[in-house]
Specification:
Layout lengths: L12 E2 L2 H7 L17 H18 L7 E5 L2 E5 L10 H6 L3 E2 L1
Antiparallel strand pairs: 1-4, 2-3
Length: 99
């Protein structure tokens, strides 16, 4: 992986909530719904997961994106860089934290 694609704790930052919404409005799902409407939140969440996988792939950090659809379950794995271990707790517990 080139120096440009290095992903470390230094890439993780916390944004003010207003700044995060301004920068990433599509991440906020709008409505919960029951899956019967194309703008229900579950589809927005799936799109966000797929966008993140594609970002990893385009940046050369992942060589495969595996998508499995079975019954009413979708599983997505990108084999990308993951979350730097020193920031896992921040990323999963603090709103607006990411790289």
């Amino acid at each position: 992986m080139s120096d440009q694609n290095q992903y470390t704790e230094d890439n993780i930052r916390s944004l003010d909530w207003k700044e995060h919404i301004r920068m990433r409005p599509g991440m906020y799902i709008g409505k919960l719904g029951d899956g019967s409407s194309p703008d229900d939140g579950i589809y927005i969440l799936l799109k966000e997961v797929m966008d993140n996988c594609i970002d990893e792939f385009v940046m050369g950090a992942g060589k495969t994106i595996a998508v499995t659809i079975k019954d009413k379950t979708v599983t997505v794995r990108d084999y990308g860089r993951g979350i730097p271990l020193g920031k896992v707790i921040d990323v999963v517990s603090k709103m607006n934290t990411g790289g």
